[in-house]
Request: fold
Amino acid sequence: MSHSSSSWHGNLELNYRDRNGATQVQRAYTTAPLKVQRPFYPEGEKICHTIALHTAGGIVGGDRLSQNLHLQPQSHVLLTTAAATKVYRSNGQQAQQTITLKIDSGARLEWLPQETILFNGAIYQQKMRVELAPGATFLAWEITRLGRTARGEQFVKGEWRNSTEIWQDGKPLWIDRQWLPASQSLWDSPHGLGGQPIVASFLCLGQPISPEILEKMRNLGASTLNRGGLGGVTTTQEQGSICRYRGASTIEVKNWFVAIWQLLRLEGLQSSGIKPRVWQW
Reply:
């Protein structure tokens, strides 16, 4: 617990290595409220599935959370969360989370957390920095729901800041910064949220994306985005692709992203992958 009885300073540090074709957790260190379950291997010993937990139930103003992962050469990790991450209405303080990922040559990280839900009045900042070695692969998605719309809540008070930086050999591959000072006008504006509470991104870097696969990704959007959401797919200057979503259905975007993940798995590893057991949608 931090200096304040109502906020946390939590850490999660994980170091993975490949040993004779098996990915192992070489070091795991956590402090409350962050925790990880024991690693498991539903796809065989090469791919380590890791489930992270937030044992306090949600993030509050003043919280400072830090996650650090290092994948040594040839290791392969899929990390997800046990449940959605909730960011509660702030008492005036900003909640912060910093994520640092280092992926060595030949290693592959699939960073696939469940969605983040910001309550109206939340003040939240997340910073992610990824260091990719040549030959490393990074697949990630991020799904953010702004407001508990099932309860009729809109995100019209508070602030959301999100920064993602992906670097390779000192060169930026992808820099994405988002800032939403919540207001009714930004909620309603077509240049803001347009009344849509969910924004999401899917990123793949380090895995070649052929024109045929890119077209399949777009076709998957056409077949799964059937609840009014909008999606787009593009390539990056380096080998990789970016998918964006804005809509109102968590299930819709999850179904699209999982379909893309399985497609890229099949293309890169000749296996569509086994969904983590905590994905109950």
